[in-house]
Amino acid sequence: MRRNFLKVACACVAASALPVLAATYPERPVRIVVPFPAGGGTDAIARSLGEDLSRRLGKPFIVENKPGAASIMGSDQVSKSQPDGYTLLLTTSAFAIVASVGPRLPYDGTRAFEPIASLGRAPNVVLVRKDSRLKSMQDLMQIAKASPGKMTYGSAGNGSSVHLAAEYLQAMSGIRLTHVPYKGSAPQFSDLLAGHIDAAFATMASSASLIRDGRVRALAVTSADRSPTFPEVPTVSEVSVKGYSADVWYGVFAPKGTSPAIVQVLYQAIASASENGSYRERLAREGLTGKVGSPQELTITVDQEVARWKSVAKERNIQFD
């Protein structure tokens, strides 16, 4: 009985400390780790969010890029950080993909993190350079079928959401493309513009400015519905592979064991930031849609995505090292 009393007493003390912790957090700068190179779409979203959170919460939110191994290096760093709310992870669907399709991880998969908020969803985009012979998604599919393996496409890296979107398209359609992985979207676009690859699968966030500037042509988006950012661009499902859909979501996580009070402070601040101001404008420019999701909603998204990609990987033999 004494042991049970002590457990209850400790729990009560911990619970009473939560409002105090929420009122004082943050007391020093917070790191937002982005597991992708600087200059990409995820990086731009993180920096805009960091600026808004800095204004709202009164302490600097500093973005730190930690690319490598299909986002695994950055995620690993956060998973091994102190669960005190001062190291966060802002990532994409790659978070669930590497947990379901990828190699053995140096951390306990999705269970090594506390979900904080989902930021929204955006389509991936199939791109070609502006002077490409490929004028439509139908052109790409026809030429790829006629010459299996000869057409090349770039992605931001093995195991990225865009890599899996392309592999999923091949699995559903029967075409065969040659994958050229890059270390981030910037070198991928450089080679696309230089004519070293035929096409690219990219996130809307990383490619929106290139599409607006007319430097590349968007053949199709990979989401189920057209993007409000570029409503003239058809979906893959509309024009070539019916039922195909592979968009990308964005979310913020903390190390496992982070206080629920800190999680709530961050979630509320992110939700407020998304309602108006420069961060909301940034999301719109990068093609993200949907409202901010709660920690519970982000958990559901992650679980569904892990189950989905495990099934796809098994049925379609999609693998990466």
Search tags:
45% helix; alpha/beta; D-Maltodextrin-Binding Protein, domain 2; 321 residues; five-stranded mixed beta sheet
**Count of all domains:** 2
Task: Please state the overall shape, judged from the principal axes of the Cα atoms.
Answer: globular
- CATH topology type of the largest domain: D-Maltodextrin-Binding Protein, domain 2
Q: How many beta strands in the DSSP annotation?
A: 10
N-to-C SSE series? HEHEHEHEEHEHEHEHEHEHHH
Kindly report the spatial arrangement of strands forming the biggest sheet: 2-1-3-10-4
**CATH class type of the largest domain:** Alpha Beta
On the 0 to 100 scale, the average pLDDT is 90
The description of the largest β-sheet is: 5 strands, mixed
Range of strand content: 15-25%
Assembly of the depicted chains: single chain
Can you name the CATH architecture of the largest domain? 3-Layer(aba) Sandwich
Share of helix among residues? 40-55%
Count of individual helical segments: 12
Characterization of this structure:
The protein has 321 residues and is an alpha/beta fold. The protein has 2 domains: 29-121 and 249-316, D-Maltodextrin-Binding Protein, domain 2; 124-239, D-Maltodextrin-Binding Protein, domain 2 (3-Layer(aba) Sandwich), CATH 3.40.190.10. The chain contains 12 helices and 10 strands. It has helices spanning 2-24, 41-57, 72-79, 94-100, 137-146, 161-173, 185-194, 204-212, 236-239, 260-273, 277-285, 295-316, and strands spanning 30-34, 61-65, 87-92, 113-122, 124-129, 152-155, 178-181, 199-203, 216-221, 248-255. The strands form 2 sheets. A 5-stranded mixed sheet has the order 2-1-3-10-4, with helices on both faces. A 5-stranded mixed sheet has the order 7-6-8-5-9. Strand 1, helix 2 (41-57) and strand 2 (61-65) form a beta-alpha-beta unit. Helix 4 (94-100) crosses helix 12. The N and C termini lie far apart (53 Å). 48% of the residues are buried.
